[in-house]
Please model this.
Amino acid sequence: MKHVNLLILDDKEENIISLSALLSTLEDVRIIGSTNPTEALKICWQDDIAIALVDVHMPEIDGFEFISLLKSNSQTSHITAIMVTADSKDDKDLLKGLKSGAVDYLYKPLDPEITLAKITSIARQTQIQEEIKEKNVALEELQKQLLLAKKETEEARKVKESFLANVSHEIRTPINGIVGILHVLRKTPLNHQQREWINRLDSASNSLLLIIDDILDISKIDSGMMKIEYETFSIREKLLDIAKLFKIKASSKNIAFETIIDPQLPAYIKSSAIRVQQIIDNFTSNALKFTETGKITLAVSVIQQMDYRCTIRFTVTDTGIGIKPEALEKIFLAFEQGDDSITKKHGGTGLGLAIVKRLADLLHGKIGVESTYGVGSAFSFQATFEKVDNFKQQEMMDEGATPSPQKFENVRILIAEDNELNSFMLQHILKGWGCEVDVVKNGRVALEYLEQQDYQLIMMDTHMPIMSGFEAIQAIKTNLNPRKAATPIITISASVLPHEQAAAYEAGADSVIGKPFDPNDLYQKIATLISKRP
Ligand code: ADP
Model:
């Protein structure tokens, strides 16, 4: 416990000696005596005095004045002052002492027991107050540190997000060019080997995109920006689609692929089809990646049926390399892989299972894994889903039967895009749909072209030198000529982060298309925007 400094001010030395002797039995109390009020004031300033026992009658300054002086100075006003007097307990004197700031009186001759009890209690109170003060200071400091840490985390999150948006933009832009050109190339006469090369290029570009998507997914989930969109869908059809794709991939590796679906499985469930598929796809891709011979099984079993809900478990079992027990715990952590030699042989970022674990949490489900090193693994996802009866499926267009797009007539489009590969590819696709196309490399030239010429549509990249897409869109939408201002604009954004897309709409864009885009999607968007024009 901290010491309490106690001052005795009395013009008679002998009084100080006797009071000091009485109080010397108190632990943690350090006594300082003074016969001179001026010196006593100095002591109060310098020695961190907590309690002052002040004699009322002194020749220069009396006790009332001394206490008033203590109370009027911010450096000494906290001192607990007690008057010591030989006078009778006259109410007037009592009041005068209390008004000057004293909290209590001690009467001479001092009763040792009462004096000790009073001082002990005041000293204890002072110590408690001191502790509270110290704790408050520590708390305030902690609060400051917490606020700082929160601010730093928020800033780090923003930096990470903008870094990811930039990296994804930088990587998506050239991939967009590659995918687009592959699309154009596929429509030209090709021999078998050339077609094979194009397929390889396509698959390499898609792998790159998957990595970018994984990085964006994990950062979106970790920053709480991943929204789970619930819809009613046929879980059986979804599983059959997944199985169809993986069966082809497995057979190209000479591995058997089996699907076992519980007949109790409800026809329709309400969940996020895309996220459920992402989890199963991930397990199955890993199974394929880490299995050289044998079989992969996708088994779906109903664990519990309730009135409106049911618990389903999806398990992907393989006869692959298996996982060592010590690696099992860390494979669900981001950027962790079972074994370094695995990275060298099979590649991968170690993000897949970390995303799966987080998605399962978002879907209120759980992940399980059992594995025997050298024998094989079984990964499972189990969750409870809402069952949907009598769901009328929307008329779905059979993708294979999509008619080749009708040509546009009298449609002139301005492309503002600084990346040559992309503008070349876009130009090709648009010309293939019968459009006339002009290409410029920045927003400022786009404005100049628009002054000279009417366009039915403008395609605007968001990141361009000299004048960015957003600035150009704002200038177009505020053009004094209403016809020019009404020109529909589609922004081409490599960023798939929602806030970037929202910024495009805020700037005045009529529609947004990501990079790389599905040409059918772009066709639909152009057709819709053009049809709205008078
Ligand atoms: P990666 O992209 O590296 O495959 P994942 O998060 O999907 O990342 O997997 C992490 C690690 O878990 C893998 O590197 C591998 O060591 C191990 N793993 C995952 N699935 C299997 C499997 N079916 N068989 C063996 N090991 C697996």
